[in-house]
Write a structure and sequence with these properties.
about 55% helix; three-stranded antiparallel sheet; single chain; mainly alpha; two-stranded antiparallel ribbon
Length: about 625
């Protein structure tokens, strides 16, 4: 059978199981059905061979087994699996939860934003209506105040007019849609900052709640509720563990008991899983508490800086004061996000409560108290304290590495296998969950770390680690809720976690057990000065010169077709014309000496005859 055919068969089985459960009045999710199908196939008691193709009888048998298991209302194991499915499908990181919250907020504001950005006003009345729509958007975007409250709308309008008067609506209408959306968000932040500052100054703040006080009360209530739930689950787990210890005691324990040990083990698995999930939620609540303290400190500092900026001043440049308003609004939005996170954590802790109802019916609290009367019920801390005085001696083992808190850095951050449960006790006592004690000694085997409940358990496990690891996997096949409780996904490649969110942001810190160090002197103490463009080859320089010269004769050209014109901007580039002139002939001239002849004695007079004298002063031609 090909992979596609196998997936088609599995989908049909899941669909038929869900339909039969729905027909009998029990609605189940496909995720739960898919995990149940895999768990039934892995269970060796059902004798399914995963290496051969399932026949029609096998498919029918598989469907019946899955339906019977999903309809068992008195099974703590089913409640544990449902709890795991619910938690892994709903629990997410802070970042992803806030991103989802912002996405939902944007989707709710999409209609208002679209109405503003796509509006085409034609007269003054429509322009006023659009301005009121912007005021409503600013209120909805900030989440502070109701757009139906007259006083809140007046205050928001006054704050908006101080930074965005109606005279600028023409400029706003000429912007692109994306720029309009960006300006709306910026205006929302600035207006919120102005309103917060006015509230702190006692001049406004209509409809603005006292978030620091609300968060203080909400954190106290949420933490108290989670701690109460956690204490109840921890006490119940310790009582059930004490009862199972008494049942497994070969000396003082009874030979028979009216409740099967396997059913008591399922009850312990259920309570331990509830306890583990509550610890995760409590840790996130602690992060919220620290984040709120940091945000409140920032809020006080920013308000103080803003007050110092605007105090005793009649006019302040917008570039100087607007960043303060925006920072103030972002801090306030952070406080609003913490309210959302705390609400989600509180709801999740409350929604886990129904999943531990079945185990309380298996062994009611009153009956459990009667059975434990006269017995010593140890807490996990007390049991760890009692066993810490007898640690493992590493010198008794060859080629086996043991880690201890005194010699290992980051010891408390080791990623322990089986979630800190003793693997030896789990195998030898047929699925009994007993927390291990890392101070007895932590076994390092194939880059994985194991802890145990006693020195004897540690020594026995270290002698045959592979055998015990394989037996733990076999126990998990019969109790599939252990796959997620003990994080055995590596042993079961076909059973993947419902989601990777829980471990996606966790940083694996490796223990520091050895350290290699070395020293080295610099090879070149003086910085080098290498000219990368230097060329020693004369012909290479000639080639570069020719390449540069050829660039002067290049033209930038572009073409356009009937289909492409008017769709994009096209430019062409040519060399501009220049003034030029040419000459085909030249003017020439020649010159001869100018005659200069003087005559003297022409006047005559008297009795004497006229005697003329001619003087030729013309210059020679060859001078």
């Amino acid at each position: 059978m090909s992979r596609a055919q196998a997936e088609s068969v599995i989908k049909n089985i899941i669909r038929e199981v869900a339909q039969e459960c729905a027909g009998k009045g029990q609605s189940v999710s496909e995720t739960l059905v898919a995990f149940t199908v895999k768990a039934v196939v892995l269970d060796p008691r059902n004798q399914f061979n995963v290496d051969r193709t399932l026949t029609n009888n096998d498919v029918r048998n598989l469907i019946e087994l899955c339906v019977d298991r999903l309809l068992d209302q008195e099974s703590p194991a089913l409640d544990t699996i449902k709890m795991q499915v619910y938690f892994d499908m709903n629990y997410t990181s802070r970042r992803e939860l806030l991103e989802e919250h912002q996405r939902v907020l944007r989707s709710r504001l999409a209609a208002v934003s679209r109405e503003i950005t796509e509006s085409r006003v034609k007269d003054r009345e429509e322009l006023d209506i659009l301005y009121l729509a912007i005021v409503s958007y600013v209120l909805l975007r900030s989440g502070v105040g109701s757009p139906t409250d007259i006083n809140t709308v007046r205050e928001a309008t006054a704050a908006l007019q101080s930074v965005f008067p109606q005279s600028e609506m023409g400029t706003f209408m000429s912007l692109l849609r994306k720029d309009k959306e960006q300006q709306l968000n910026e205006l929302s932040m600035i207006v919120l900052g102005i309103r917060l500052f006015n509230r702190d100054s006692g001049k406004g703040g209509e409809g603005i709640d006292d978030l620091p006080s609300v968060l203080k009360e909400l954190i106290s209530t949420t933490k108290t509720d989670i701690l109460s739930e956690l204490k109840a689950s921890s006490d119940l787990a310790c009582q059930q563990t004490a009862l199972l210890e008494w049942l497994h005691d070969p000396v003082d324990g009874p030979s028979e008991f009216f409740i099967p040990k396997s059913l008591l083990n399922q009850a312990v698995y259920n309570v331990r899983q509830h306890e583990a999930f509550l610890n995760i939620i409590l840790a996130d609540e602690g992060l919220c508490e620290m984040q709120v303290e940091s945000l409140q400190a920032n809020l006080r500092t920013q308000m103080k800086d803003l007050r110092a900026t605007v105090e005793f001043k009649t006019a302040i440049p917008t570039a100087q004061v607007f960043p303060h308003f925006t920072a103030l609004a972002k801090t306030w939005a952070g406080l609003q996000d913490e309210i959302v996170l705390l609400g989600v954590l509180g709801n999740m802790a409350a929604n886990l409560r129904p999943f531990i109802a079945t185990q309380s019916r298996v062994l009611p609290k009153e009956q459990l108290d009667d059975l434990l009367e006269g017995m010593q019920v140890k807490s996990d801390e007390q049991r760890m304290k009692d066993s810490s005085g007898n640690p493992v001696d590493p010198t008794q083992f060859e080629n086996i590495e043991w880690l201890f808190p005194e010699t290992t850095a980051n010891f408390d951050k080791l990623a322990l296998q089986f979630k800190g449960i003793c693997g030896y006790t789990l195998v030898e006592k047929e699925g009994f969950l007993l927390p291990g004690n890392p101070y007895i000694g932590t076994l390092k085997h194939r880059e994985k770390y194991y802890i145990f409940s006693s020195k004897e358990a540690a020594c026995s496990f270290a002698a045959k680690p592979e055998e015990y690891i394989a037996q733990v996997a076999e126990i998990a096949k019969k109790a599939p809720e252990l796959i997620h409780l003990l994080e055995l996904h590596q042993q079961f490649a076909s059973v993947t976690p419902y989601s990777e969110v829980q471990s996606g942001e966790r940083l694996m810190v490796r223990p520091i057990v050895k350290c290699d160090s070395c020293t080295q002197t610099d090879t070149h103490l003086v910085e080098t000065n290498i000219v990368r463009s230097y060329e020693w080859n004369e012909w290479e320089l000639r080639r570069k010169a020719i390449k540069l010269a050829n660039l002067q004769r290049k033209l930038t050209q572009s073409v356009q077709t009937d289909l492409s014109h008017m769709r994009r901007d096209n430019v062409t580039q040519t060399y501009p014309s220049k003034d030029a002139s040419c000459q085909s002939k030249k003017d020439g001239q020649s010159n001869v000496p100018k005659p200069q002849v003087y005559l003297a004695g022409l006047r005559g007079g008297g009795l004497k005859p006229t005697n003329m004298v001619k003087a030729n002063l013309t210059r020679a031609v060859d001078e």
